[in-house]
């Protein structure tokens, strides 16, 4: 049976995932409105890459306390995660030619979502909800 801490963690991660999606969509639309389609696409690619990385980190954290270990493919992806991210960034920046700043901003989307989650917890936990 899940503990209260596990329940809290699960709810918080669920909110962060939803907030990440909304921050990514909002950022993409905002950049498209101000700077155009090219920078917005770069932001979206950075956000997508960071969402995949966040999912990988979450899976790694979940597997640390689990009785069942990740499979060989999952372990290989965890081990090679940063090499794969570096390769994807190379393709996005050098081969596709997107500007670095919007891509970097997109990579920070989960960080922004996490800050929003902290603010949410401060507001609603302070009121006992």
Kindly describe this structure:
This protein has helices at residues 4-35, 37-64, 72-79, 81-95, 100-107, 109-126. The protein has 129 residues and is mainly α. The model has no long low-confidence stretch (mean pLDDT 87).
> What number is the mean pLDDT?
87
By DSSP, the count of extended strands is 0
Oligomer: single chain
Proportion of strand residues: under 5%
What is the radius of gyration? 17 Å
Low-confidence stretches: none
DSSP summary: helix tally: 6
The percentage helix is over 70%
Shape: flat
Termini gap: 23 Å
Q: Please write the string of helix (H) and strand (E) elements.
A: HHHHHH
Main sheet overview: none
- Overall structural class, as computed from helix and strand content, comes to mainly alpha
Condensed summary:
It contains six helices and no strands. The chain has 129 residues and is mainly alpha-helical. The model has no long low-confidence stretch (mean pLDDT 87).
């Amino acid at each position: 049976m899940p503990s209260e801490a596990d329940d809290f963690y699960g709810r918080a991660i669920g909110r962060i995932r939803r907030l990440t999606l909304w921050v990514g969509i909002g950022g993409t639309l905002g950049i498209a409105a101000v700077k155009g389609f090219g920078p917005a696409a770069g932001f979206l690619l950075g956000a997508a890459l960071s969402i995949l990385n966040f999912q990988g980190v979450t899976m790694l954290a979940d597997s640390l306390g689990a009785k069942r270990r990740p499979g060989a493919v999952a372990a290989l992806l965890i081990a090679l995660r940063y090499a794969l991210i570096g390769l994807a960034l190379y393709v996005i920046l050098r081969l596709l030619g997107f500007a670095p700043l919007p891509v970097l901003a997109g990579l920070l989307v989960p960080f922004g979502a996490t800050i929003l989650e902290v603010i949410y917890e401060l507001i609603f936990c302070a009121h006992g909800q």
